[in-house]
Amino acid sequence: MEKNLECYAVEFEAVSTYYYGERRPAIRDITLRIPAGVLALIVGPNGAGKTTLLETILGLLRPRNGRVVTLGYEIPRMASRARALSSYLPQDFMKPPAEPFTAREVVAMGLASNNPAGRLSEGDWKRVDRALEMLGMLEYADKPFGKLSGGQQQKVLLARAIAREPKLLLLDEPFSAIDQETRSHIVSEIFPSLLEDGCTILLVSHELDHSHIDADMIIRMADGRIERVIARDVHAIH
Ligand SMILES: Nc1ncnc2c1ncn2[C@@H]1O[C@H](COP(=O)(O)OP(=O)(O)OP(=O)(O)O)[C@@H](O)[C@H]1O
Ligand SMILES: [Mg+2]
């Protein structure tokens, strides 16, 4: 099966993922369907398996058991196809302070990976600047990435993820260094506009209070399992 025509962004069937040399699975026996076009919040304590879940979705970690389909592509067999349509902002993003690339170049790298020969068109550079502007980082575009503050770096990496215009956006604790004002702007302006364009957003958070996030689905994980899924009738909404 090359392409799955069902409208799920992510499908897991009895999936378990182990880290190399570990006897205990980091996520175990997970069955889950995330419809396309929703904002799904993934919550749970440290070690619950949230990051492992995201990395299994992209095939960065290989599931030992079960079936994973991302954007209609079998994982890991067709993972490169799924990854080309996705953006992933990992949890540990800090770059060494000597990073020589400017903020604009860092965002541009997000587009280069999908372009033949890594060359960017004029339109691509416009997308880069638009993404920087959305995050309020255009005025820092020419500054070396390593000389930005932690929160500013996180905004630039979020701009890079958005500039790719992904079908699937995976964000692992994207707000850890971001101030309240920017956070509300992202949640109330940027996320809705991405959802409107048909993007599916998976947002990992271990914040206890996530009432400010208008999630279509809340996936609560604990000890490598899904403890609870709360979903609203997403088809009625998007
Ligand atoms: N590289 C690794 N090697 C072995 N075990 C790992 C590795 N990374 C994570 N684990 C284990 O897998 C389990 C799930 O970890 P994971 O990083 O997915 O949790 P998490 O929910 O993202 O936690 P946090 O909120 O701290 O980011 C934990 O028990 C953890 O100890
Ligand atoms: Mg994590």
What does this structure look like?
With 238 residues, the protein is of the alpha/beta class. 30% of the residues lie in helices and 26% in strands. The protein has a 6-stranded mixed beta sheet, with helices on both faces. Helix 3 runs parallel beside helix 5 and helix 4 crosses helix 5. The longest helix is centred in the C-terminal third of the chain and has 17 residues. The N terminus is likely disordered. The chain binds adenosine-5'-triphosphate and magnesium ion. Adenosine-5'-triphosphate binds next to helix 1.
Entry summary:
The protein is of the alpha/beta class and 238 residues long. It has helices at residues 50-57, 79-84, 103-112, 122-134, 150-163, 180-196, 234-237, and strands spanning 8-17, 27-35, 39-43, 65-70, 73-75, 86-89, 168-172, 200-205, 217-222, 225-231. Residues 1-5 have low confidence and may be disordered.
